[in-house]
């Protein structure tokens, strides 16, 4: 299921691409020493360019439908075995694909129990949404993509049985004009970040796959309750029911 949307292949395809990449890498850096395993999967071209050298996982490889990936495949159908990946990184992938929930289901299929998923996307409740309203930008990156609410992404993860460990916002900027312009100064961005931190134009969600215990728990009330259908009648025996 190839995407028909204009899709960024390099960070330079996005406005402030280098700044976005640097901020995302800074946000992810504290997580790398905390995860362990054998395989880290970076899904999407932008994800493949994220620096993860400090990660404790031994093998890092990329997957996307195009040249340059270690594996060339449709992210809707990962050609990987079930429960074979320790962590997945997805940068601005869901925003430009036709069926983002199917992609999350594939992440869940290939992740081991207690595996991690790192999801980066554009936040519609942010200054960046201005470009979705202005016709001249609607066919340009990143506004040609879908901006999913972070709460919606977390709901999808909840349905799949994930615990959200972090939900951060970056880049309190519209991505339309240069940083430090007359109508968008660094002071304005800093004020927005301080007073409305949830309005960052980029969200970073970290979640962990949780396992549900399958051992049945006995209902003590049912175990201790007497079976009155087989017990002799209290009226005939002269006994009363014990409490």
TrEMBL record:
An example molecular function term from Gene Ontology annotations:
methyltransferase activity
Pfam families in alphabetical order: Methyltransf_11
This protein's UniProt keywords = Methyltransferase, Transferase
Q: Which GO terms describe its biological process?
A: methylation
**Residues of the Methyltransferase type domain:** 71-119
Q: Where does this protein come from, organism-wise?
A: Shewanella saliphila
Q: What's this protein's name? A: Type 11 methyltransferase
Q: What InterPro entries would the database entry show? A: Methyltransf_11, SAM-dependent_MTases_sf
